[in-house]
Structures are given as C-alpha cells and as structure tokens.
Design brief:
With about 325 residues, the chain is an alpha/beta fold. It has 7 helices and 12 strands. Strand 7, helix 4 and strand 8 form a beta-alpha-beta unit. The radius of gyration is 18 Å and the shape is globular.
C-alpha cells in the first residue's frame, strides 16, 4: 500500500482565454502563462499538433453544453448505486504515501486506487468511513500496472515528476477505455468516489496544443465515466472552469487556494451543497483556517508527500 508522492500541478492559464471562460468570471492568471492555441482543435480525437504522431481516428463531437444530469449514460452502463454526495464541512484524511493508517477519526478517506485493495477499502467502510479513489487521469505514470495500455502517441512532456508525462487529452477514443478500466477498478474495490488528478493540462506546457474546450470535453467525459459506475467524482483544482463544470462534479478537491488567495472561487460548490476538500502545504493553519471556516471548506495542512500527518482546521 505504498505510492510515490503525488505531483502538485498548479494551473498556468493560457494567454488567451475563450470568450466563454471570460464571461464565466475567470480572473487573470497569477503565473506566467505558456503559449497555447486559443481555438479548439478541429477534432478532439485527431490533433494536428503535439508530441508524437497520433493516429487519426473518428472525431469526437463538439464540446458538450448540457449538464451531467441531462446527458445520457453510455450504452450498457448500469450503476449499482446512487453516487454518494459529500456535504460541505466533512472532515477528511488524504493519504497517498505509505501504508494507510485507518485510525484517523474522520468520516472521509482519500487514498490511492491502485495501491489499496478491496480489503483495505472494506476495512475503512467497517470503521464508518467513506473512501475516495485517487486516480491520475491527466498524466501517464511508468509505475502503474497499466502503463503499457497507453500508446506512445498520447504521451507528452514530463510534468516535473520522475516517470510521468502529460497525456494528450484530445484523444478521447484512446483514453476513454483506459480510464473506464481504471474506474472499474475503483468501483470493484468498493470505493465511493473518485478523485481524478491533473485535469488542468490545458494550462500547462504539456507538449500538446490543448485548449479550454479540450479540457472541458475531457473533464466531462471523466465525470460521466464515474457516474456511469455509481461513483461520485471531484473536480481537482481547475478553478477557472468551475462555472462550466459545477453541474458535472459532486465535490471539489483543492490544493493551496489560501496560499494564492483563491479560496472564494470555490464557493459555487459550497452554495450548491457540495463539499470542498482543501489542503495547504506551506501555509500554517493560523493563516487560513478562519477563512476556511467562514467559507465552509473542509481544510487541513498536510506535508507535500501526503503521508499520515495532518493538521486540520
């Protein structure tokens, strides 16, 4: 039950945001942006620029505009249960490194989906916990058992962490079955929800010309895959797209919104009755807990490796 320390990718907004994103209230980026194309790819599955030479396949439809509640589930998908809906204010533990310590007295655990077994999840359930399945959906990892399922054409630049490379999220027909198998794993192990990591590649130097529309399309696909399996799903970071994605996701997971003075941007989730699970790494609790309580966030301080240690608000 040991996983390496996870990347903490802070989003770097593209230099030119789409008009829709601006109208949704996205604020100016705090970091120096990378150059990205402002226009969506002609086909979500047939990119014309990027790392590698992707094989052309049937193009995906235009970016969805309907909410998750109004889209039809994929054929053959039969959720075994209604997704769990975490409410604001729930305390949580987030442990991705080392053997999971099950005695932390909180109602929600977020743990690595690959590194923990069905028995581990069941033990947490017996202790009265809900359990979130951490899965990386935005980068290839050379230490995962399904690493050979990813064709080289979808692998982009290193994301700053050893053994990891950004994915070309435009290649929906390639990535969807891989992510479906990963979410099948989460469901079959008994997890209640999924935390999909690195769903903000469009704001980073991935090696691909990803756009805001590409990211919206991919993130909605990820949410659909979870819901089809009876799993709730959290939006990880990606604050600029909260207005467009709020209806698709059941809760949020945020890193360092206090450090960057962004926590108020998560209030749409709280107002919708959806939990925001939040951590800070550098900021002491004295610097953010008062605001977290005011906003209704589920906040704590953690060390970057995400081991057992935690200091909650």
């Amino acid at each position: 039950m040991r996983a390496p320390a996870r990347p903490r990718a802070r989003i770097l907004l593209p230099a030119a945001l789409t008009a829709a994103a601006l109208l949704a209230g996205c604020s100016a980026p705090r970091d120096s942006p990378s150059a990205h194309s402002a226009a969506p790819s002609a086909s979500a599955d047939s990119p014309t620029a990027g790392t590698g030479s992707p094989t052309a396949s049937a193009g995906s439809p235009a970016a969805p505009t309907a909410s998750a509640a109004t889209r039809t589930a994929s054929a053959g998908a039969h959720p075994a249960k209604a997704p769990w809906k975490p409410r604001p204010g729930l305390a949580w533990q987030w442990q991705l490194d080392g053997e999971v310590e099950p005695t932390v007295d909180v109602p929600v655990y977020d743990i690595d989906g690959f590194e923990n077994s069905e028995a581990d999840v069941a033990a947490l359930h017996r202790a009265g916990r809900k359990v979130i399945c951490y899965v990386n959906v935005g980068a290839w990892e050379n230490f995962r058992p399904d690493k050979d399922d990813f064709p080289r054409s979808v692998l982009g630049k290193n994301n700053g962490w050893a053994g990891e490379r950004w994915l070309d999220i435009r290649r929906l027909s390639v990535l969807r079955p891989i992510m479906e198998r990963r979410f099948d794993m989460c469901r079959d192990k008994g997890f209640d929800a999924v935390e999909p990591d690195l769903v903000e590649g469009y704001g980073n130097d991935t090696g691909f010309r990803l756009t805001t529309a590409d990211q919206l399309r991919y993130n909605r696909m990820i949410a659909d895959i979870a819901h089809e399996r009876g799993l709730s799903v959290g939006l990880k970071n990606d604050l600029p797209q909260i207005p467009q994605l709020l209806a698709d996701f059941d809760f949020a997971v945020d890193e360092e919104c206090a450090q960057y003075d962004e926590c108020a941007r998560l209030t749409p989730f709280i107002k919708a009755g959806k939990a925001v699970f939040h951590v800070e790494y550098k900021e002491p609790t004295s610097a953010f807990c008062a605001e977290s309580r005011r906003l209704g966030l589920s906040s704590m301080q953690k060390k970057l490796e995400l081991g057992v240690w935690r200091k909650p608000c």
